[in-house]
Amino acid sequence: RLLIVDFGSQVTQLIARRLRELNVYCEIHPYQNVTDAFLAAFAPRAVIFSGGPDSVTRAGSPRPPQSVYALGVPILGICYGQQVMMQDLGGRVEAGEHATAEFGRAYVEQTGKDDDFLFGWFLEGREQVWMSHGDHVAEIAPGFQVLGTSPGAPFAITADPARRFYAVQFHPEVHHTPNGRTLYENFIRLAGFRGDWTMGAYREEAIAKIRTQVGDGKVICGLSGGVDSSVAAVLIHEAIGDQLTCVFVDHGLLRQNEAAEVVAMFRDHYNIPLIHADESDLFLGALDGVSDPEVKRKTIGKLFIDVFQKHAAEVGGAEFLAQGTLYPDVIESVSFSGGPSVTIKSHHNVGGLPEKMGLKLVEPLRELFKDEVRALGHELGLPASFIGRHPFPGPGLAIRCPGEITREKLEILRKADAVYIDQIRRHGLYDEIWQAFVALLPVRTVGVMGDGRTYDYACALRAVTSVDGMTADYYPFSHDFLSETATRIINEVKGINRVTYDITSKPPGTIEWE
Ligand code: XMP
Description:
Keywords: ATP-binding, Glutamine amidotransferase, GMP biosynthesis, Ligase, Nucleotide-binding, Purine biosynthesis. Pathway: Purine metabolism; GMP biosynthesis; GMP from XMP (L-Gln route): step 1/1. This is GMP synthase [glutamine-hydrolyzing]. Homodimer. By secondary structure, the protein is of the alpha/beta class. The protein folds into three domains: about 1-190, Rossmann fold; about 200-385, HUPs (Rossmann fold); about 405-500, GMP Synthetase, Chain A, domain 3 (2-Layer Sandwich). It is about 35% helix and about 25% strand. The protein contains 17 helices and 20 strands. The strands form four sheets. The protein has a nine-stranded mixed β-sheet, with helices on both faces. A five-stranded parallel β-sheet has the order 14-13-12-15-16, sandwiched between helices. Strands 17, 18, 19 and 20 form a four-stranded mixed β-sheet that branches. Helix 7 (about 225-240) crosses helix 14 (about 370-380). The longest helix is centred in the middle third of the chain and has 21 residues, at about 295-315. The radius of gyration is 27 Å and the shape is globular. It starts with a strand and ends in a 13-residue tail after the last strand. Mean pLDDT is about 90; it is low at about 335-350. Xanthosine-5'-monophosphate (XMP) binds near residues 393, 395, 506 and 512.
């Protein structure tokens, strides 16, 4: 197995992700925990030093134990990790000045040869990489040679092939180093990994970790019906059986048949103890007359916490709260606090709840990205149609029904949405689309059906492509698809007589209407 020594970079988890993609098992450990004894016990087959925010020129800055260099295994240092290696092994690092700091895209030219490490790189003579460093290496350590340089980083790629020590100034793990994967591939090949680790192995490890953490304690899991909390619930249930109870808060703002499907799957199919808290009267009552989007969100968020707490108390003696927190949620809450993502998460990451209830958190998906959670869900036998579901926001249909919410409007919206999604599935487009839904507009328009006048609601269809929900493009449906869908909605859904298609991208729009 491979050890990643974490010096505090924002993107350390991306290194782990790249390695998992290459079917290599790795663990991230903060540098403080990596002692001589730890290294001896862990016995890594290779080590990676992550980047980090500190400066190696500062006394007391983070370092690995020096015994790491005597293990005889390959080491790869990235950014701060490179500087650590150079400093430790007899080179020199200079503290950053503006003139030498470098952030963003850069191009590395090959200047030396080491076919093992650079194998498959520099196909076009230079590679695009992502730099983000203040300090820089001023002198490389004895035994090292320079394999690549960029205008701002004369020692962009350095290597001591005899000892199999490699160090790069840029971040090969990020998206903006398009061929970064090749460097990782070469590195793990050098270290002799077979690349046969799988999501099945991850499942076993995660289960063992949950058992160790929880012991014979009781766990409560808030189930939303979304992929993340569902995968977390099934995984935890596999680990600790009926020590787990799920609480599914039904706020009356779910899609057609959604509540029944969640209950059928978790209670009946997986036999997971489930409290189905049908609190729709409470939520719809509180939302009565509310039309401001933020007031809607806050009302729902606050009630959700109260209701969840009330039902969780029924379990009695629970010590743990399980959440389907993913790695991007972790980074977002650290690096973008105050940004839009905080508002986006305000419903789901029931902030403050664990402390308020005196519960400890179980977050078995904390290291994973969305597509890895889907792979894990697949591994756990969740149905493909369920795993591939589009995201659905915590406040549910409330934010797809601009203006005041009534039961009548929600019913119309549910029907229209079901027809629209059915159309998308029939045309085989569901998996190409990140998210698709109907918004019911708070306007009524005049129409003519048969010989009669109608005066009904207008709706907007929304469908977007996206990678992470942060930016999005509207989906280019064919005219045939759009007209067939409009016809079906107007014919099949009483209460709608006009259909529009929302062609706004994000930015400037958001995906949801509110
Ligand atoms: P926007 O509308 O901000 O949405 O472009 C981006 C993504 O986030 C989802 N979304 C939410 N998810 N609680 C959630 O769990 C929320 O309050 C919330 N608001 C928006 C939205 O569906 C899209 O996928």
